[in-house]
Amino acid sequence: MIQSGVINVLKPPGMTSHDVVSFVRRLYGLKRVGHAGTLDPAAAGVLPVFLGTATRLVEYLADADKSYRVEMTFGLATDTGDDTGQVIDRRPYIPPTAVQLQAALLAFIGTSEQIPPMYSAIKIDGKKLYELARAGQIVERKPRKITIEAISLVTATETNIVFDVTCSKGTYIRTLCADIGHILNCLAVMSFLVRMRVGSFRLEQALTLEEIAANPGQAVQAADTVLTHLPARVLSKQQSQAVKNGQSISCGSNGVGLVKMYDWQNNFIGIGREICQVEGQTTLTPVKILNPDR
Q1: Could you tell me the fold of the domain covering 66-198?
Q2: CA 8, CA 93: separation in Å to the nearest integer?
Protein backbone atom coordinates (compact mmCIF):
# COMPACT_ATOMS: atom_id res chain seq x y z
CA MET A 1 0.00 0.00 0.00
CA ILE A 2 1.31 3.45 -0.97
CA GLN A 3 2.06 5.53 2.12
CA SER A 4 4.01 8.49 0.79
CA GLY A 5 4.85 10.25 -2.49
CA VAL A 6 3.71 12.81 -5.03
CA ILE A 7 1.32 12.59 -8.00
CA ASN A 8 1.49 14.94 -10.98
CA VAL A 9 -2.26 15.32 -11.53
CA LEU A 10 -3.83 16.80 -14.66
CA LYS A 11 -6.73 18.67 -13.07
CA PRO A 12 -9.74 18.88 -15.40
CA PRO A 13 -11.94 21.98 -15.71
CA GLY A 14 -15.00 21.88 -13.47
CA MET A 15 -13.33 20.42 -10.39
CA THR A 16 -11.90 22.31 -7.45
CA SER A 17 -8.41 21.50 -6.20
CA HIS A 18 -10.08 20.16 -3.05
CA ASP A 19 -12.20 17.82 -5.19
CA VAL A 20 -8.99 16.34 -6.62
CA VAL A 21 -7.53 15.87 -3.13
CA SER A 22 -10.75 14.11 -2.03
CA PHE A 23 -10.53 11.79 -5.04
CA VAL A 24 -6.93 10.85 -4.24
CA ARG A 25 -7.72 10.42 -0.54
CA ARG A 26 -10.48 7.91 -1.33
CA LEU A 27 -8.46 6.07 -3.97
CA TYR A 28 -5.43 5.48 -1.75
CA GLY A 29 -7.26 5.19 1.57
CA LEU A 30 -5.13 7.95 3.11
CA LYS A 31 -6.25 10.83 5.31
CA ARG A 32 -3.04 12.80 4.90
CA VAL A 33 -3.25 14.27 1.38
CA GLY A 34 -2.53 17.83 0.21
CA HIS A 35 -1.74 19.84 -2.90
CA ALA A 36 0.61 22.63 -3.99
CA GLY A 37 -0.77 25.68 -5.75
CA THR A 38 -4.57 25.97 -5.94
CA LEU A 39 -6.15 26.06 -9.40
CA ASP A 40 -9.51 27.77 -9.98
CA PRO A 41 -12.37 25.33 -10.72
CA ALA A 42 -12.60 26.44 -14.37
CA ALA A 43 -8.84 26.09 -14.91
CA ALA A 44 -6.99 22.94 -15.95
CA GLY A 45 -3.45 21.67 -15.77
CA VAL A 46 -0.70 20.58 -13.41
CA LEU A 47 -1.74 20.07 -9.77
CA PRO A 48 0.90 18.26 -7.68
CA VAL A 49 -0.80 16.17 -4.98
CA PHE A 50 1.14 14.93 -1.94
CA LEU A 51 0.47 11.71 -0.03
CA GLY A 52 1.35 10.76 3.55
CA THR A 53 4.59 12.13 5.00
CA ALA A 54 5.37 13.79 1.65
CA THR A 55 2.77 16.45 2.57
CA ARG A 56 5.50 17.96 4.72
CA LEU A 57 7.23 19.01 1.49
CA VAL A 58 4.30 21.01 0.08
CA GLU A 59 5.86 24.33 1.11
CA TYR A 60 8.99 23.63 -0.96
CA LEU A 61 6.95 23.26 -4.17
CA ALA A 62 4.39 25.95 -3.38
CA ASP A 63 7.21 28.51 -3.62
CA ALA A 64 8.32 27.25 -7.06
CA ASP A 65 7.69 29.27 -10.20
CA LYS A 66 4.80 28.31 -12.45
CA SER A 67 4.05 28.47 -16.18
CA TYR A 68 0.63 29.00 -17.75
CA ARG A 69 -1.04 29.21 -21.13
CA VAL A 70 -3.71 31.91 -20.95
CA GLU A 71 -6.62 32.95 -23.14
CA MET A 72 -7.68 36.57 -22.61
CA THR A 73 -10.87 38.08 -24.08
CA PHE A 74 -11.34 41.78 -24.80
CA GLY A 75 -14.29 44.09 -24.26
CA LEU A 76 -15.75 43.11 -20.89
CA ALA A 77 -15.07 43.04 -17.16
CA THR A 78 -16.52 40.65 -14.56
CA ASP A 79 -16.62 40.61 -10.77
CA THR A 80 -14.29 37.61 -10.66
CA GLY A 81 -11.85 38.67 -13.38
CA ASP A 82 -12.65 35.64 -15.53
CA ASP A 83 -15.53 34.67 -17.80
CA THR A 84 -17.26 32.64 -15.06
CA GLY A 85 -18.26 35.78 -13.15
CA GLN A 86 -21.03 38.32 -13.49
CA VAL A 87 -20.42 40.89 -16.24
CA ILE A 88 -20.09 44.32 -14.61
CA ASP A 89 -19.04 46.34 -17.67
CA ARG A 90 -18.86 46.12 -21.45
CA ARG A 91 -17.14 48.66 -23.67
CA PRO A 92 -16.27 48.89 -27.36
CA TYR A 93 -12.56 48.76 -28.15
CA ILE A 94 -10.15 49.06 -31.01
CA PRO A 95 -8.41 45.69 -31.58
CA PRO A 96 -4.74 46.14 -30.66
CA THR A 97 -2.06 45.64 -33.26
CA ALA A 98 0.64 42.98 -32.96
CA VAL A 99 3.16 45.68 -32.01
CA GLN A 100 0.85 47.01 -29.28
CA LEU A 101 0.28 43.51 -27.93
CA GLN A 102 3.99 42.71 -27.78
CA ALA A 103 4.75 46.00 -26.01
CA ALA A 104 1.94 45.49 -23.48
CA LEU A 105 3.08 41.97 -22.59
CA LEU A 106 6.75 42.88 -22.31
CA ALA A 107 5.87 45.75 -19.94
CA PHE A 108 5.13 43.18 -17.24
CA ILE A 109 8.47 41.36 -17.28
CA GLY A 110 10.33 41.77 -14.01
CA THR A 111 9.23 42.44 -10.45
CA SER A 112 6.19 44.61 -9.79
CA GLU A 113 3.25 44.94 -7.42
CA GLN A 114 -0.16 43.39 -8.00
CA ILE A 115 -3.40 43.93 -6.08
CA PRO A 116 -5.06 40.54 -5.42
CA PRO A 117 -8.62 40.14 -6.71
CA MET A 118 -11.57 40.07 -4.30
CA TYR A 119 -12.38 36.57 -5.51
CA SER A 120 -9.32 34.92 -3.97
CA ALA A 121 -8.53 32.74 -0.95
CA ILE A 122 -6.42 35.40 0.79
CA LYS A 123 -7.60 35.97 4.35
CA ILE A 124 -8.26 39.39 5.90
CA ASP A 125 -9.25 39.43 9.57
CA GLY A 126 -9.81 35.68 9.44
CA LYS A 127 -12.16 35.72 6.45
CA LYS A 128 -11.34 34.71 2.89
CA LEU A 129 -11.73 37.47 0.34
CA TYR A 130 -14.09 35.46 -1.85
CA GLU A 131 -16.41 35.00 1.15
CA LEU A 132 -16.55 38.76 1.62
CA ALA A 133 -17.04 39.27 -2.12
CA ARG A 134 -20.00 36.87 -2.18
CA ALA A 135 -21.51 38.85 0.69
CA GLY A 136 -21.26 41.99 -1.43
CA GLN A 137 -18.32 43.49 0.46
CA ILE A 138 -15.26 45.04 -1.13
CA VAL A 139 -12.25 45.65 1.10
CA GLU A 140 -8.90 47.29 0.55
CA ARG A 141 -6.19 44.83 -0.44
CA LYS A 142 -2.50 45.47 -0.03
CA PRO A 143 -0.43 45.08 -3.20
CA ARG A 144 1.90 42.08 -3.33
CA LYS A 145 5.23 41.73 -5.06
CA ILE A 146 5.22 39.35 -8.01
CA THR A 147 7.78 38.48 -10.66
CA ILE A 148 7.05 37.74 -14.31
CA GLU A 149 10.05 35.85 -15.63
CA ALA A 150 8.84 35.39 -19.21
CA ILE A 151 5.75 36.26 -21.25
CA SER A 152 5.10 35.73 -24.95
CA LEU A 153 2.24 35.99 -27.41
CA VAL A 154 1.02 32.71 -28.96
CA THR A 155 -1.96 33.77 -31.11
CA ALA A 156 -4.20 36.81 -31.52
CA THR A 157 -7.59 37.60 -33.04
CA GLU A 158 -9.75 40.73 -32.89
CA THR A 159 -11.59 39.39 -29.83
CA ASN A 160 -8.93 37.55 -27.81
CA ILE A 161 -5.30 36.56 -27.45
CA VAL A 162 -3.44 33.52 -26.15
CA PHE A 163 -0.15 34.02 -24.33
CA ASP A 164 2.33 32.01 -22.26
CA VAL A 165 3.64 33.30 -18.95
CA THR A 166 6.14 32.08 -16.35
CA CYS A 167 5.69 33.76 -12.99
CA SER A 168 6.34 33.63 -9.27
CA LYS A 169 4.17 32.27 -6.50
CA GLY A 170 1.19 34.50 -5.70
CA THR A 171 0.66 35.86 -9.22
CA TYR A 172 -3.04 36.13 -10.11
CA ILE A 173 -3.44 35.58 -13.85
CA ARG A 174 -6.97 37.02 -13.79
CA THR A 175 -5.55 40.29 -12.46
CA LEU A 176 -2.70 40.16 -14.97
CA CYS A 177 -5.25 39.95 -17.81
CA ALA A 178 -7.14 42.98 -16.52
CA ASP A 179 -3.86 44.90 -16.15
CA ILE A 180 -2.78 44.01 -19.70
CA GLY A 181 -6.16 45.25 -20.92
CA HIS A 182 -5.63 48.51 -19.05
CA ILE A 183 -2.36 49.13 -20.90
CA LEU A 184 -4.17 48.38 -24.19
CA ASN A 185 -6.97 50.81 -23.19
CA CYS A 186 -9.68 48.16 -23.16
CA LEU A 187 -11.44 45.85 -20.73
CA ALA A 188 -10.22 42.25 -20.57
CA VAL A 189 -10.94 39.03 -18.70
CA MET A 190 -9.25 35.66 -18.47
CA SER A 191 -11.35 33.25 -20.53
CA PHE A 192 -9.29 30.07 -20.10
CA LEU A 193 -6.23 28.93 -18.16
CA VAL A 194 -3.99 25.87 -18.38
CA ARG A 195 -1.13 25.46 -15.93
CA MET A 196 1.77 23.99 -17.87
CA ARG A 197 4.32 23.60 -15.09
CA VAL A 198 4.87 23.81 -11.32
CA GLY A 199 8.58 23.63 -10.55
CA SER A 200 9.80 20.41 -12.23
CA PHE A 201 6.25 18.99 -12.68
CA ARG A 202 5.18 19.43 -16.31
CA LEU A 203 1.93 19.06 -18.22
CA GLU A 204 3.44 16.49 -20.61
CA GLN A 205 3.90 14.03 -17.73
CA ALA A 206 0.68 14.86 -15.84
CA LEU A 207 -1.87 12.05 -15.39
CA THR A 208 -5.64 12.27 -15.69
CA LEU A 209 -7.79 11.02 -12.82
CA GLU A 210 -8.78 8.07 -14.98
CA GLU A 211 -5.14 7.12 -15.58
CA ILE A 212 -4.38 7.38 -11.87
CA ALA A 213 -7.37 5.21 -10.93
CA ALA A 214 -6.36 2.59 -13.51
CA ASN A 215 -2.85 2.21 -12.06
CA PRO A 216 -2.55 3.85 -8.62
CA GLY A 217 0.85 2.40 -7.82
CA GLN A 218 2.52 3.61 -11.00
CA ALA A 219 1.10 7.12 -10.59
CA VAL A 220 3.03 7.92 -7.40
CA GLN A 221 6.51 9.44 -7.63
CA ALA A 222 9.07 9.42 -4.83
CA ALA A 223 8.84 12.35 -2.43
CA ASP A 224 12.28 13.69 -3.33
CA THR A 225 11.19 14.44 -6.91
CA VAL A 226 9.82 17.68 -5.45
CA LEU A 227 13.35 18.75 -4.58
CA THR A 228 15.17 18.56 -7.91
CA HIS A 229 16.40 22.13 -7.37
CA LEU A 230 18.32 21.17 -4.20
CA PRO A 231 21.79 19.60 -4.14
CA ALA A 232 22.06 16.08 -2.69
CA ARG A 233 24.20 14.88 0.20
CA VAL A 234 24.83 11.16 0.88
CA LEU A 235 25.60 10.46 4.54
CA SER A 236 27.38 7.63 6.29
CA LYS A 237 25.48 5.24 8.54
CA GLN A 238 26.62 7.12 11.64
CA GLN A 239 25.80 10.53 10.14
CA SER A 240 22.38 9.33 8.98
CA GLN A 241 21.45 8.14 12.46
CA ALA A 242 22.63 11.41 13.97
CA VAL A 243 20.51 13.65 11.75
CA LYS A 244 17.51 11.35 12.23
CA ASN A 245 17.92 11.98 15.95
CA GLY A 246 17.90 15.74 15.31
CA GLN A 247 21.64 16.25 15.72
CA SER A 248 23.84 18.52 13.61
CA ILE A 249 26.91 16.98 12.01
CA SER A 250 30.14 18.20 10.46
CA CYS A 251 30.48 17.57 6.74
CA GLY A 252 33.13 18.05 4.09
CA SER A 253 30.97 20.12 1.76
CA ASN A 254 31.58 23.84 1.38
CA GLY A 255 27.98 24.53 0.32
CA VAL A 256 25.55 26.83 2.06
CA GLY A 257 21.77 26.47 2.18
CA LEU A 258 19.17 23.73 1.94
CA VAL A 259 20.13 20.24 0.73
CA LYS A 260 18.32 16.92 0.36
CA MET A 261 19.83 14.16 2.49
CA TYR A 262 20.23 10.45 1.70
CA ASP A 263 21.54 7.65 3.89
CA TRP A 264 24.44 5.32 2.95
CA GLN A 265 21.94 3.05 1.10
CA ASN A 266 20.67 6.02 -0.93
CA ASN A 267 17.31 6.19 0.89
CA PHE A 268 15.86 9.71 1.09
CA ILE A 269 15.96 10.99 4.68
CA GLY A 270 14.76 14.57 4.42
CA ILE A 271 16.01 18.14 4.18
CA GLY A 272 18.99 19.71 5.94
CA ARG A 273 20.69 23.08 6.00
CA GLU A 274 24.43 23.55 5.51
CA ILE A 275 26.01 26.40 7.43
CA CYS A 276 29.64 27.38 6.95
CA GLN A 277 31.26 28.04 10.34
CA VAL A 278 33.93 30.61 11.12
CA GLU A 279 36.66 27.98 11.31
CA GLY A 280 35.92 26.90 7.74
CA GLN A 281 33.99 23.80 8.78
CA THR A 282 30.50 23.20 7.43
CA THR A 283 27.71 22.05 9.72
CA LEU A 284 24.71 20.13 8.39
CA THR A 285 21.60 20.63 10.52
CA PRO A 286 18.40 18.60 9.96
CA VAL A 287 15.42 20.77 8.98
CA LYS A 288 12.78 18.19 8.11
CA ILE A 289 13.14 14.41 8.55
CA LEU A 290 10.67 12.30 6.55
CA ASN A 291 11.92 8.77 7.17
CA PRO A 292 13.25 8.56 10.74
CA ASP A 293 12.81 4.77 10.93
CA ARG A 294 14.64 3.79 7.76
Answers
A1: Pseudouridine synthase (3.30.2350)
A2: 40
